[in-house]
Amino acid sequence: MRRWTARAGRWNSTRPPLPATPAPLPRYAANAVRIIGGRCRGRTIRFPAAAELRPTPDRVRETLFNWLGQDLTGRSTLEPYAGSGALSLEALSRGARSATAIDRDPKLVAALAANARLLGLDAGLVARRGDARVLLERDERRYDVVFCDPPFADDPWDWLLPACARLLAPGGAVYVEAAHAIAPAAGLSLAREGRAGQVVYHLFRPG
Asked: Which pLDDT value is given to residue 170?
């Protein structure tokens, strides 16, 4: 716009100030999820991009931990396809005694360990790089909760669900995310099921 300036005796042009340059986005800003419960509630974890990485959305995680009773104090968990590790860190935030997280991508394993340190959850985390099938076949421990969220393209359910059933402690639960409904393996029964977009999620119990 133009404004008359009496002292100068002429019209002056004025422009509104330019907006401030936005601050640079933090590293991995597009790859971040929030912890939604427990002592680390509201904290954000960040992780590198990786093929077929699908962190469980907040709404689905909220439903899952409602199914599990919110408080996981003293329980042990296993996450064979950890990815971002959000489920393992969420479990530790909610009081889990230990969380074993496995992934074949070394960058994701390193980011998971770093996030656990930043959140003060590293004492309970066991982060392992390797092939889920090989490590599960060698494992003789028992877990109270097993989180199963493999890449959809892998479709490993013919061996993965029986392996999880073998490692499950009495009274435990196996959580499953897949692109389609999954039938329970021998020794398991479907306790709960839901859908979010193209994802079908299930909770299996012994029985």
From this structure: 96
